[in-house]
Each structure stands twice: as C-alpha cells, then as structure tokens.
Amino acid sequence: MLTSHPAARWGLHVAAYLVLLVGLLGLVDRDDGWNFDDGAYATQVRVLRDGDGSSWAYPYRHLDRDPTSQFAPVSHSTVTDEGSFPYAKQPAWIEVLRASSSLTDRAGDPTWGLYLPGVLGAVAAALATGLLARRLVPDAPAVGPLAFWVVGLGPLVIQTHALWAHTAAAALGGAAAWGLVALAQRRGRWWHLAAMAASVAAMAALRSEAAVFALALAAVAFATAGWLARQDGAPPVRAIASAAWWSAPVVVAAAVARVGSGRWMASVAPGGEVAGPDDSGPQFGLLAGRANGFLRTFVDGMGASSAATVLALLAAGLAVAAGLAARRRPGRLGEPAALLGAAVVLVVLRVLVAPDDLAGFAAAAPVVLAGLASWRWRDAPPAERALVALVALHALAIVAVQYPEGGSRDWGGRFLLPVLVPATVVAVTALWRALALPPLPVPNASDGARGLVPARAVAAVLLVAAAVPTLAGVRATAEVRDSNRALTDLTLSVDAPTVIRVPRYLTRTSWRALPGPDWLSADVDTAADALAMLRPGRTEPVAVVGNGADQVDVLGWQRDVWSPVVVVFTPR
C-alpha cells in the first residue's frame, strides 16, 4: 500500500493539514486584519505593487507640508527626511509577501498570496514537530503524527490568519532544534551545525526575536557539546573547543544576517532618520513593564478585560495541574483529562465573556503547558533536556527584553513561536510516556491490540484540548477583525476628499483601502494640528473619522458633526 511508506504517510498528514488551513482561511475576512502589523506589511507590499516596484516610500500627498510625516497614515513606520516607509525593518519578509502575492494576483485575488507564506510556514513547523517527536520516541510511531497535529491545531492556525512571519520563525526554530537534538544524541555532523546556523540566519532576516533565539540556542549548544566532551573524557581545553565549534557559528550567522538586513533596510528607506510621532503607547517602569509584557505574552494578548485575564490564569493553573496529575499517577488518564478539559472550558468561557480579547500562550496552548508540567528533568534523555533548556532560555529572555505591551493584539504569545516546535515535542512526548506507556491491558483483546484503546484515548484528549482553544481564537480574532472592518467601511463611506483618522494607530488596520485615498492619521489631541497644517489655501472639506472625532475643534473651519465618530470641517 502507498501509505505503508513513511514518506507517503507524512505526505498525507501534510496534505490534510494544508487543506484544513486553506479551508479555514476561505471562511474568514482576508481583506481586514485583526492586528496592526498586517496593515504595515500589506500596505508596504501594495506601495511596491502600485508604484514603480522600486520605491518603498508611502505616496503621502502632504509631505511638503509635513516633512516629518507626523500625520502619514501608517503608524510605526520608518520615517526619514525622504518620506515614510510602512515596513522596512525586515525587507526580506516584504519581498517574500510581494513574490507570493504576485503569484495569486493573476488569479484575481492577490490577498491569498499575502497569506500563503504563513500557511506554508505552519505546515513546515508541524512537519518539523512530527519528525522531531518521532526521533525522540522511536519506539512509539504514533507519537510523531500526534505531535504534528497537536502543534498544527494550536496557535499556528491563528498565525496563518495574519501576515507576519511567525509561522516561518516556528518552522526555522524547529529546523534549528533538529540540529540540537542530533548533537545531544551524539550523532551530530557538520550538516546539523550548518542547519542550525542557516536556520537562525534566515530567522534573523525575518524576525527581531531571532537574536534572542540565536543566543539561547548557542548557549545550549555550548553547554551540551562541552558536557558530552567531558563525559567522553576529553580534557577541558578540548571540551571548550568542541563547545565553541557548536555555538560560535550560530551567533556569527545571526549577526551577519542581522547586519545584512540592516543595510538592506537602509537602502530601501534612504535618507536620515527623523523623529516622528510618539507611538510607544502607555509608559511603564522597568519591573511594571516586564510584568505587563509577561501577562500579554503568557496570559492574554490584549488585557482588555479583567474577567478574561482571571479566566486565563485559572485555565493556566488547571493545565499545569493536569500535567502534575499525569506525572504523579502515570497510566491514569481520568484526572489529567478532567483537569485539562476544565482548562479548555474556561478558555471557551473566556471568549464568551470577552469575545474581542485575545489569549496568551497559556490559554492558547494548554496542552503544551500541561506537557511541560508533566516532564521530568531527572528521567529525561539529554536531547529533551537540551530542548527544554532552549525553550526556557528563550522564554526568559523574551520576558526580559520584549515591549511592555508584549506582542500586542496577539494570540498565543507570538514572540515564543521560535520555540513552539521544541516545546510541543517535549510536551507531547512527556504526556505520552506518562499516560499511554506502559500500555494498559484491554480485557478480551489480543496481544497486538493491547494498549490501543488508552493510546487512542490519550490522542483524542490531546487533540481536542489543542483544537478547541484554537476555535475560540478564530472567534476572538474574527470579533476584532469585524470591528476593524466596520471602521474601514465607515471611513470609505464618508463623502470628503481628505480624511483624518483617529486614533492614529487604527489607520493601518484599513490596509485594503491604502495607499489610494487621501488619508491622514492623528490622535484626538493632535487632529487640530493636522487640520491647521491642511488649512492654508484649502477650499475642500476634511472629515475627521473615529472615536473621539466629536471632541476635535479648530479655528478657521466650519464644524459639522454628523455623528460622534464623523465630523466634517469646511474651510471658512
């Protein structure tokens, strides 16, 4: 049979997952993002597509009056004295999106192409998870496919509904983990080191958190290689040399890629950088900023609802309790399943209570949390220890250096995606060992059938616990997306040649309309300054649209309040 071959079996899993992801994307609104970064990426691609293909500068019509691009539509842009550039920080990812969207542009729907790289990244990450789990537990063939679907049904699904490079980072993190496992299992060769270096270099060209991942990977590789060398009786100098061989190329590759990406950024966003508007958001002290970022990344993605935060914390506690129960009483599925099920119920309840609040890692991936809680350092082989150390170092570093708002409008702790594959591999294998091995006897069953029922039960519990929070995430992100779409539709319906959007940060969620219309962006307290800038010599009206529009007033204009969110100003 075709499926008797391992490659064919994995091919079936990949094909089924690809169909699932594409089918889910077909059910959501692909023209309106649920996060702000979508607007930066998509707008930058559209600027290149609609222009001459070489200039990355946003066609801001009022640059002569606003040389610092204070009121340019896309916030958080790179601003120089030559204009504003919606997203130039990682130009490699923009080129990936431009290439993929051009493929589907011929079919009449370029938006599919914007999502294609994220879909392929999710598939690659799931495959890396399955193959890595198969490597760690070679005596249990079912573990690989189970790990594939546990990670595939988790936060990766939601990440494919965004345009950022996090699924690619997850896949590259899995490739790097493959090399680390080979080292820890004493079968490391030069190509495993090359895979680690190439993976972090590619990640560094796509994501800023790759620097943190590269340092964590290098540290774990250094410690693992040095420890193995000492175990083999090598003198300290030789052990250090071996450790440096396995770690230095990783750091060098990431640094070279980062420097190269920085120079590329300078070439696509030329000119001297100028101070633009302050888009930093609320200010926090050092410890308060670390604590707030931790909550956003691990507990909830927005923090808009106190009740949702409490429910997420309770769900995380139940997931940890499920893992500890599996660790305490191996071979007994009832208590861990009940606790994990209760955690999933709280995640669903959380979405019902606060439908537009998003979830951090603990609420979005309770299976991974439970699995890590069930894992035992003392009984684990060196490869699993190395993976857990990588996950821990990366997570701790993210908490230390991330924005105070964490990922902001995030689902599943997006800065943790580089270690999602190793974390899921360890979690699934730990739960499998605790709950499905040794197999429990099945009455009146043949020897060949013994253990199949509990193994299937374990798989069913883990898959359901992975999929249900993701379904809740689809609902939550759809709520945010609907809100953004309504504001875009409202703005497009206003009959005014120029529109000022408030608050400033929301304008880039309307990327399906950009860069065509004459839009500006401002906050409520700076909208009057934007109107004053536009006033000299103007005869046409300007609309201010968004929450707080009715609070805006300025001399020299006739003010007509159409609604609390639409005010039209006509020059006097």
Description:
The chain has 572 residues and is mainly alpha-helical. Helix content is 59%, strand content 5%. The protein is built from 19 helices and seven strands. The protein has helices at residues 6-25, 36-50, 91-105, 110-136, 143-152, 155-159, 166-184, 190-204, 210-231, 236-268, 286-299, 306-328, 334-353, 361-364, 366-374, 382-401, 420-435, 452-493, 527-534; strands at residues 78-80, 83-85, 498-501, 518-521, 542-545, 557-563, 566-571. The strands form two sheets. A five-stranded mixed β-sheet has the order 4-3-5-7-6, with helices on one face. Strands 1-2 form a two-stranded antiparallel ribbon. Helix 4 (110-136) runs parallel beside helix 7, helix 8 (190-204) packs parallel to helix 10 (236-268) and helix 12 (306-328) runs antiparallel to helix 13. The protein starts with 5 loop residues before the first helix and ends with a strand. Mean pLDDT is 91; it is low at 439-453.
Give keywords:
single chain; 572 residues; mainly alpha; five-stranded mixed β-sheet; two-stranded antiparallel ribbon; 19 helices; 59% helix; globular
Query: Measured on Cα atoms, how large is the radius of gyration?
Result: 26 Å
- Give the structural class: mainly alpha
Within the largest sheet, what's the order of strands?
A: 4-3-5-7-6
**Counting H and I runs of at least 4 residues, what is the number of helices?**
19
Count of beta strands: 7
Distance from N terminus to C terminus (CA atoms, Å) equals 81 Å
